[in-house]
Amino acid sequence: MRVSRRFAVLVAALAMSAATLTACLPQTWVGWQYTPVRGYSELSPEQLGAYVAYVYWINGGTVNGGCGYRATVHAGPLARLYVDEGNVQYIRGDIAFAQAILETGWFSFCNSSVHPSWNNFAGIGATGSASATPGKFATATHGVRAQIQRLNRYANIAGADSLAKPLVPQRGWSNAHEYNNWWPGVQGTRTIWQSLTGVWATSPCYDTHVLRIYNQMRTHYGLAAMPVQAKPGC
After folding, report:
1. Domain residues of the chain, as ranges?
2. Measured between alpha carbons, how far is 113 from 94 in angstroms, rounded to an integer?
3. Region for residue 75 given its phi and psi (left: phi exceeds 0; alpha: psi -120 to 50; beta: otherwise)
4. pTM higher than 0.85, yes or no?
């Protein structure tokens, strides 16, 4: 079977070391219906990238009924961005990676209003409205950082002074003042993934879908699934 060069690189990622490079970092407590947004990654970039390659491999190079991998960078380097950007901001980059998998359909952007070249991995600005303007970011680094900084604003009461990297303008803010004053009453109050349901996305199953993908990656590498209770109907 003929496969694309990009898919071949993805499959090659399966041969990468899956050592958990972040295992020495302190971890946050997780309980039933309590999965913190903030914290350090527990899965390594090698594990995250190789799992995406594995999913494409077992599905013959496509997902979602025939769509291939279309992110602007390969899964391994993209996973590295999530872990590095997340760790420096104290946001769970590995779970944010699972969120991006859900939002992009395994980075296929299949039937999406977001074009792969926009480096928007989290549906930022894509509200479903005809007048919505999805975010466009110059590089994959900026796209990942935008997602991490948005998660930080939801989960961290501190404002722009808390940012470890320069602010990425996006829907809701274009400067530090707007970041500090964005959505009063909500900023810093969505500290767990369960509380992002109905906020980041309208689906009542949003957090369940994100965390289900994340637990699939954990169990694939022999790690215990996080204690996340499934919601009825999800």
Report:
1. 5-219
2. 24
3. alpha
4. yes
pLDDT in tens, 130-175: 667 899 999 999 999 999 999 999 999 999 999 999 999 999 999 9
Q: In the numeric block, which tokens belong to residue 64?
A: 């979602």
- Residue 215 Cα distances to 3, 44, 146, 150, 210, angstroms: 29, 14, 24, 23, 9
Q: What is the DSSP string of 78-140?
A: HHHHHHHHHHHHTB-HHHHHHHHHHHHTTTT-TT-SS-GGG---S-TT--S-TT------SSH
CB neighbours of 107 closer than 8 A, spacing ≥ 6? 52, 69, 70, 71, 75, 78, 100, 101, 116, 121
Residue 111 token pair: 């039937």
Q: Is 33 helix (H, G, I), strand (E, B) or coil?
A: coil
Nearest-angstrom CA–CA distance, 146 and 124: 9
